[in-house]
């Protein structure tokens, strides 16, 4: 997650909660593996559905477990993530790890990805930025799936709603990577705010945005695909960073899960 230098297009994407890159650029989805700027340490015990997306061939041989994106376990065999994370990867090269708070360790449970569904209208400008991964075996029951928001869930998207984002992305603008899962408290912003800051890029039919007006916390590079959670549901998928202004510290832009709930649900049945 960075300013809009689309991960899949201009950068390969490894993100879980965003790094600020470049002042005049639109919004860069998280690039390569990096944690939430301005957040605090969390754990997979607190967020058992938060998973890391790894390059399988590197899973247990590289320092950060080969992590390059985040995801959300929504059933024992299904993970929701960003399309830009996996569109250029072979499913057989990708793995999912649950229960590994510290990426330098070898605990938790690893699963291979059997297949990946990428939204058929995903675009290199990060429109329709949603994917569903099918695991080769179910995750153990201690990793409780997180329900997805549906079209009936309008409350979580109301301006001012408290939400929380999770990831292993960059810690700061000095490109220090987080090894431990982090999270940040945010508030959902009015759609018109992000439309004004990002004309032509922010589409309220498929995006939602959130930030912390006090601390300026936001997701960073390496956080892409990770969860934005409100009211006990997955309401957003980390996609890209919006432009900011003096009155609006850097907002994160998230794929609006409710807008894709029917398509996601269809994949969960397969």
UniProtKB/TrEMBL annotation:
Q: Boundaries of each Peptidase S1 domain copy?
A: 36-269
Q: Is the keyword Hydrolase in the record?
A: yes
> Which UniProt keywords are given for this protein, alphabetically ordered?
Disulfide bond, Hydrolase, Protease
GO biological process terms, alphabetically, are: proteolysis
Q: Which InterPro entries does the entry link to?
A: Peptidase_S1, Peptidase_S1_PA, Peptidase_S1_PA_chymotrypsin, Peptidase_S1A, Trypsin_dom, TRYPSIN_HIS
Determine the domain of life of the protein's source.
Bacteria
Task: State if Hydrolase is listed as a keyword.
Answer: yes
Which PROSITE patterns does this one have?
TRYPSIN_DOM, TRYPSIN_HIS
Offer an example of a GO molecular function term for this protein. peptidase activity
Give the record's family classification: Belongs to the peptidase S1 family.
Query: Can you say what this protein is called?
Result: Serine protease
Give the organism, scientific name: Streptomyces siderophoricus
